[in-house]
Design a protein that fits this description.
Layout lengths: L25 H16 L4 E3 L9 E4 L12 E20 L7 E15 L5 E7 H14 L10 H23 L5
The structure holds zinc ion.
Zinc ion binds next to helix 2.
């Protein structure tokens, strides 16, 4: 197996809707461990499987971003948002767009249903930064990126950064670094 890494925009894996996970096997557990490591290395709060080019509805999170707080680690499968309340705008970044931060409008609080690693359905209500992280990661599972959620001004302000990512990607492709 090729070594897992975080793919950057505009890698096509980021646009493919992820598949429902129906079996939690050893390989999946290994992938989860790798994703958690990559997330901490990149100083992120969450990582969705499409960001490591795995086509599964799987996400890992630790909203403290602190590897010394493993009790805050969360791993969920097949998550969905079943209720939304309020909206709030705040700064957001993405590990697939390193260095790009923009204000994004999100629901302030959401109710989520997801499966944990025991295969049990979990329902919870989260708000503020946690709700933001969930919405961002669930978007990834649907092939939606935070640049799609930007308002007009944020989009304009990101234009040159996005062009740079596209240029970098093309270069890497030409060098054969991306299959
Ligand atoms: Zn992201």
């Amino acid at each position: 197996m090729e070594k897992m890494k975080i793919v950057h925009y505009p890698h096509p894996a980021l646009r493919h809707p992820a598949k429902v996970v129906s079996c939690i096997d050893k390989e999946l557990r290994l992938s989860i461990g790798h994703m958690m490591e990559l997330m901490y290395d990149a100083k992120g709060l969450g990582l969705a499987a499409p960001q490591v080019a795995l086509p599964y509805q799987l996400l890992v999170m630790n909203v403290t971003g602190d590897p010394m707080k493993p009790e805050c680690e969360e791993v969920y499968l097949n998550p969905r948002i079943v209720e939304r309340k309020g909206t709030v705008e705040d700064e957001e970044g993405c590990l697939s767009f390193p260095g790009l931060y923009q204000k994004i409008r999100r629901s302030k609080s959401i109710k989520i249903q997801a499966y944990d690693l025991k295969g049990q359905l979990v329902e919870k209500v989260v708000s503020d930064i946690e709700a933001r992280a969930w919405q961002h990661e669930i978007d990834h599972l649907n092939g939606v990126l935070f640049i799609d959620m930007m308002g007009h001004i944020a989009k304009l302000m990101s234009r040159s950064a996005i062009k740079d990512f596209e240029r970098e990607f093309k270069k890497a492709q030409e060098k054969g670094e991306i299959p």
